[in-house]
Amino acid sequence: MKVYKANEIKNIALMGNDGAGKTTLTEALLFEAGIIKRRGRITQKNTVSDYFPVEQEYGYSVFSTVFHTEWNGKKLNFIDCPGSDDFVGSAITALNVTDTTVILIKGGAGVEVGTQNHFRYTEKLNKPVIFLVNQLDDENCDFDNLLEQLRTIYGSKIVPVQYPIATGPNFNSLIDVLLMKKYSWGPEGGAPTIEEIPADQLDKATEMHKALIEAAAEHDETLMEKFFESEELTEDEMREGIRKGLASRGMFPVFCVDAVKDMGVRRLMEFLGNVVPFVDEMPKVFNTRGEEITPDPAGPTSLFFFKTAVEPHIGEVQYFKVMSGTVKEGDDLTNADRGSKERMAQLFVCAGANRIKVDELVAGDIGCTVKLKDVKTGNTLNGKDCDNRFNFIKYPNSKYSRAIRAVNESETEKMMNALQKMREEDPTWVIEQSKELRQILVHGQGEFHLRTLKWRMENNEKIQIVYDEPKIPYRETITKAARADYRHKKQSGGAGQFGEFTLL
User: Mean of the pLDDT values across residues 129-141?
Assistant: First the structure.
């Protein structure tokens, strides 16, 4: 596999409400790029994402999935994130190690709670956003109404790059107002037929094309001057303007796909490869000393480990981003957090449970490795003459708590080991052994979060558990000043007993 440089790599997070089609889009992206030969389906439990048993049981993503595609000489690294806010830890992690976010929207549902939550996360981290309307074949899909809904919520920064000629079960074509072409597909999707825009769509397409040109020109003075002179820009100039608008969050392009039918996916990848900012065009990350770290392949080697997955027959798979320098197979690195030495015996690029062996990865790229001795999520490995540490990922506080116990008390220690392993996979878990309450408390993001933990504990670890309500730690304390007096008298023969006591 080719070794890609920082100016050839783009890191993208896929986000959106439950059911928006992120897993299905992942299949289509990998299929179009030739990474897989056949698209899987969620109902058949054979997708690249959602390959863990708990995900197949519930039909929802529980973990993020890292995968890559190669397209037109560019490497696109994707992280497919769970839609449920119970698994927000995966979304927060992905946003911190990627540079652009694609937020999927269900064509028949419009902007949902998950859509708005994920957008808020991108806002906090200042990440570029592309809105991707999926499931255009839904009979309830009304694209014009959805576009108006987006504009009402997010303002004039919403700029459509495409629009469907018709939605519903007969959807099979759209107009691209960047290229000013009509794209249409047969029943199997895939490669489109590209034609001139029909006469009955030309006025609408021209109006939207002009709006896109103006939005692109706003983010570059040279382009703005040319726009004032001629009201036209070349395709390359428009791409440059859109790239700058994305990077500054000055515009949020809207794209269209039907992932199930594989319609519009190739054009989306084209846009991502040509327009989305490269790794070296985005704001730099700072280490714990406040020093700016540039993704320079010639710099000192520094890797940040952002995700751990525990897979059957393999053990821990550690996912990392190369923050600077170049890492090669066989490199000896030092763990800046734990002081231990590690050898990078094997390097892989990812496609869910499938991994492709590589010899090296450079700054800005994302990969994974196995069989490290003492590396945990959040650790940094450095080469010689480098002492970087990173802690830029901030997770939300817990929202839901339960006491947990093993049905068989003899399995308590085994249960605790499993809980710690699960926390490595999802840092939003908080495990507390309360001596005061004599309970083990599990703090998570919601009821569904804890339900998946119980399923995994009972089905993967074979430990039967019970959730109880946490006990309330009643305490007493002094609330105000008080005085008490007591006189003790007792005649016991002789002098007797007498005393006065005052309690303040």
Answer: 94
CB 329 within 8 A of CB 285: no
Neighbours of 494 (CB within 10 A): 6
Asked if residue 227 has pLDDT above 80, the reply is no
Give the Cα separation of 345 and 482 in Å (integer).
71
**Which amino acid is located at 107 in the chain?**
G
**pLDDT single digits (tens) 70-111:** 988 899 999 999 988 899 999 999 999 999 999 999 999 999
pLDDT (mean) for 157-161: 95
Residues 309-315: what's their mean pLDDT? 81
Report d(CA 337, CA 375) in Å as an integer: 9
Q: What is the pLDDT of residue 362?
A: 95
Domains, in order of start, for the chain: 6-283 (3.40.50.300), 292-382 (2.40.30.10), 400-468 (3.30.70.870)
Inter-residue contact 227 to 206 (CB < 8 Å)? no
Q: At what angle do helices 447-459 and 412-425 cross, to 10 degrees?
A: 120
Q: In the numeric block, which tokens belong to residue 424? A: 């490595």
d(CA 472, CA 476) in angstroms, rounded, equals 13
Residues 379-423 pLDDT 10s: 999 999 899 999 889 999 999 999 999 999 999 999 999 999 899
For residue 373, give both structure tokens. Answer: 């001795």
Tokens of 413: 């220690």
User: With 80 as the cut, is the pLDDT of residue 231 above it?
Assistant: no
* H or E element at residue 240: helix 235-247
Backbone angles phi and psi of 132, in degrees to 5: -125, 110
First and final C-alpha spacing in the chain: 81
CA dihedral 12, 16, 21, 26 (to 10 degrees): 20
Name the residue among 448, 409, 412, 407 with its Cα closest to residue 431: 412
Q: Which two tokens stand for residue 4?
A: 């890609």
User: What are the residues whose beta carbons fall under 8 Å from the beta carbon of 471, sequence distance 6 or more?
Assistant: 403, 437, 438, 439
